[in-house]
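REQUEST ID: PR-0412
SUBMITTED BY: lab tech R.K.
PRIORITY: routine
TASK: structure prediction, single protein chain
INPUT:
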Amino acid sequence: MNQAKAHLSAITAGSLGDAAFRADYGVDYAYYVGAMANGIHSEEMVIALGSQRILGIFGSGGLHIPRIAEAISRIRQVLPEGPFGVNLLHNPGNPEWEMACVRLCIENQVRVIEASAYINLSPALVYYRASGLAQQPDGTILRRHRLIAKVSRREVAQHFLCPPPENLLQKLLTDGLITAEQAELARQVSMADDITVEGDSGGHTDQGVLACIFRSVVHLRDEIAVKSPIQDQNRYQVRIGAAGGLGTPHAILAAFALGAAYVVTGSVNQSCVEAGTSAAVKKMLGQARISDVATAPSADMFELGAKVQVLKQGSMYAVRAQKLYNLYKQYDSLDDLPEQEITLLEKQVFHQPLAAIWQQTISYFHTLNQPDTITKAEKQPKKKMALIFQWYLGQSSRWAITGDPARNMDYQIWCGSAMGAMNEWLKGTPFEAVENRRVSDIARLLMDGAASLARTALLELLNVVSPENSVFPEHIDSPEQKQESDQKPKVRSKESMDASTKLCLDNSKGFYKKCWDLMPGGSHYNFGDPERPLVIPFNRGDKSRVWDLDGNEHLDLFCKFGALLVGHHNEAYNSSLIEYMNKVTSVDTCDLEVGVCETMVKHIPCAEMVRFCLSGTEAVQNALRLARAFTGKNRFIRFHGHYHGNADNIMGWRKKQDLTYPVPEQFSGDLLDTLGRDPNVITDQSFMLPWNDIDILTETVERYHDEIGAVLMEPLCINGGGIFPVEGYLEKTKALCEKYNIVLIFDEIITGVRLGLGGAQKILGVTPHLATFGKALGGGALPISAIAGRRDIMNLYTRGKVIHAGTFNGYPLGLAAIQTTFRLIEQDPGCYDRMGDIMRQISNVFVKAAKAVDLPLVVQGMPTALVYHSQDTPVMSTEGYSDKVKFCDIIIREIAKRYGIQFSPLSRMYPNLLMSQDDVRFFEERIFDAMENVRKVIDIAFKEGTGR
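STATUS: complete
OUTPUT:
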């Protein structure tokens, strides 16, 4: 007979939180939907919630009194007994509006007000509270007006935990707004029935951590309760609820675990059908990611420096609003602004002359019957500037609400990270589409999900194995059960070559076909990779992931040929570049040049002086020019499999039968030649040798040293297979160069910064005379390259002895990219070890997946720059693996991209600074299906088998 392991009473959404909250407000859940100003949390939303016995708050902030009256009237027609409430947004600049709003609520018997953005109590707020108090026959106090205070600071919460201040009660008595009895009763109750502690949120936010602030306010409540003079019969424990960052069942449950009596959602509801905002905004919110938010100056408290949190993806509001605030802080009046700044503002921000904006501002305040504001501004130029700037901040939220297509890049959309978390949670469900999101459905899904998670957590605490969670809305891909290292991974068997993780790429394929019509070969590059069946276009990225035109998610191990080191959507990197772009765009010499050069000199062993250019090709060609000038000799040595850019003298190589210098018999040197190149450029300028053979190098140098001015190589041959120099090879090469007055150049375009801030030369302990850097030097988002080297060689640039020209050499944004990249790495000294550990795990999974389908695979190179080969043993020479192996490598790359794994051409794999353990899980989920399909394609291509 089976025995129960434990008995656990049912946990439902209706049992979470404080039962008194549900009873007092007449609702089914200890949950309500907080307000968002300007009617975004509309009467339609409030009615939809109230009809399902869920409390909703109308967003009255920023609206005129007649509009608020209209909304209240409509809500009361449908919900005469509630539940519903109205938000009272503190407006210290317009206390008349605040009092009018309170009067309206009292006249229309609005029983619940949510007070937000308060720092101190206002007469209007105390009036609402006190006017609803009455003495009952048993001596207890009836609170007809319930007040929920939303706070984010302990000191503000204290105002609402205590009775209203005496001076405000006396003022209300003097003005005849409350009776003496109401004033006396007010002295015996706290200002608020409930206090919502708000952590990081959309809109106005202190960006606090809910887990810290919440318990602080709870402790404050308990401290005040002990000292309170309120009589026992009227003693009331103020409930403390939680808000901010609540967009998933896990977050809701975490809030209840903190001790929240109730929970509140806010900006996440903007994406719902009933929200009072435009379809364009809802679509943008439905695509938001967790990191797609930024803080920006607020319209209502601009001069105080208050911030709002907004959606930054798809809008320039955060950047432009910050620009306005910076100008406000820097200058005392519009007259002080530089002419170019005014021109920029009128063209890009306001789209009309500032004089016209001022006239509109005057009309606005006259409409509000506040002419004194204009009079004051006319006398105070800085105040006038603030009002003009506030025009943009105020209009931007209205443009978003109305969906003005002409100002879509200026939308101010209040949004917190919870929006992105909710989108991830709803992904793959009918609610992924914002057209299907209804506010009451979202409320139930969140609360039901939290209840389900609570029950599961309790079962786990009782050591009871819980059933597999398959109940929506908990939509989190759980990792597959970890396999023992000696156990062969399980591979699903399929009749079809379409494994379950294969992606639909219809839109991507259609786009690629159009590329062929407009771009030769369908791409902007092709050397070394002439046949690519499919290039997948992407339209967004985050950390190590990118999304294609079909909405598929991919793991980016391509990293733009290894250049992208900072990862996609690196907020610290992006913010730094935007900040500098706001400072200066393009000048001849900028203030970063010395600092960036000093940083490179500090880290790079060979760097005594530095020059900047734009691409790796330019850097290499300039280094060769320096070497020719320094030695007076025109030819240089380069090596098979080493890549040095897109120039005639370094692309391709001669066929063996044409070689007149010593090479081993097995060295073919063949590569399909290209048209359009000077046929004599390779013969005239370079020797191409096999790498890692010091005897061949020595014999060539000794025979032709009068002609050879440089030896050019990758110090670690990543391009040619991930090959290390043999012991002593680099040291002997340098000695040979110094013996014969030859400049040793390390091409660190790939290895520089990607392997470490000092490049491969620091890791290998051999310092060249010159070195070139690019790709990851500036993080990979912007083109920038550099030549660094010995002072006596670099000084040839002085007074034009050697020409180094280029419009964008040392351009400000490129230097800012270098500065930011180095700073991010310096601040995260363990980043290379972390990336290396993740890539080792990915490599191990990759090899297991190959072995599972009986395919050989080896991964070699440096942890942050790896190369895979379809053979059992590491490649020791660039000539050391067959065409068949190379073709199988291409098959792996092309098949893997159809399963959401993007390898770099030439079988390379690169990590970035934002990679995480979740990327290992993602790779493991996809690679086994991909390799099963690879096996099938290889079997078709090579019917004789896969022997190497």
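NOTES: The radius of gyration is 34 Å.
REVIEWED BY: pending
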